[in-house]
Each structure stands twice: as C-alpha cells, then as structure tokens.
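Much of our argument rests on the idea that a fold can be written as discrete symbols. In the encoding step, the backbone of a single protein was reduced to a row of integers, each denoting a local shape. This step matters because it turns folding into a mapping between discrete strings. For completeness, the protein is quoted in full, as a sequence line and a line of structure tokens:
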Amino acid sequence: MVFNKDVLRVYLQYFLKIFINIMALSIGSKAPDFILPSTKGVDFQLSKDIVAKPCILYFYPKDFTPGCTQEACDFRDHFSYFEGLDIDIYGISRDSIPTHLRFKEKHQLPFDLLADEKGEVSKKYQALLPFLGTTRRITYLLDKEHRVASVYENMFGAGKHIQKMVQMTKKGVE
C-alpha cells in the first residue's frame, strides 16, 4: 500500500495531538520564566532581558534540517518587520551553542538562538515530545507582560509560522 505524503503528515499530527496529548500554553497564560545560554555569549533570562515589550519565542527541532532552516530564514527575512514593531525574536532548540553559532553564521540570522540542551524549557512551553525527547515546532507571541498573545503549532508547516506571527501582529499586540 502506497501512502500519500500529505496523508502521512495528517496522521502524524493526529497522533501527536491526540495520543500524546500535548497542548500548547493557553492564550492569556503567563509564559514561564527561564534562563538559557544564547549565541550572544551570555545567558538569556526572559524576565530580565525582555522587559515591558513583546517577543516571539519559536521552538524548533534541529539546526541545519530543511524545515528548521526554512523557518529560521523566514524569521530572518521578516526580521525588519518585527524590529519595526519592537518585537524581539528568539529561536530555541536542543542544539548546543557551537552548533547554533554555525547555523546562525551560515544563514546570517540577525536574532539570537538559545540552547535548551536538556529540554527543560521546551518542556515548560509544551514543546518537548515525550518519549522522543525532541523539540516540536511551536511558536509563541508573548505580549509585553509575557502572557501568551498567540501560539501556532505545526510540525510540518515551517513556512506557516511566520505567516501566523505576521497576521497576529497586524491585529496588534501590547
């Protein structure tokens, strides 16, 4: 029996949502604070480094993979749009800082990447796949009080994450 690639994606997404029962943080909920190493060379702490302004936290599985590269480059290509709205962007995966630095340099990413090597922050943000131990693709738009203003999750639609964030910021976020 031959399966269509799109059919397999739908089944996998169904499995991830229903059987594993992973739900994103709820709209309006307070985003968990965290500290992670960053490609800036210092630790990043949400509550101290982003004060009274919105930000985007996008979680992704792995540097240098096709979908993750597309997503990072989409955020790079729209960076000036978010910069104009004073919204910082941070990419988070379980990759190490040296790997992040190579990825950031190769793709000329103008934003910082954060290394969640143990997966602890991914777990707090409902972005860690149980049993598999990998980070799933999920993007959060946090308001200036670090409450979840918007969330988009689609493991296989890397290009749709940027579209959703642009759409939500056009509606306004404070």
Summary: Residues 39 and 98 are 8 Å apart (CA to CA). The radius of gyration is 16 Å.
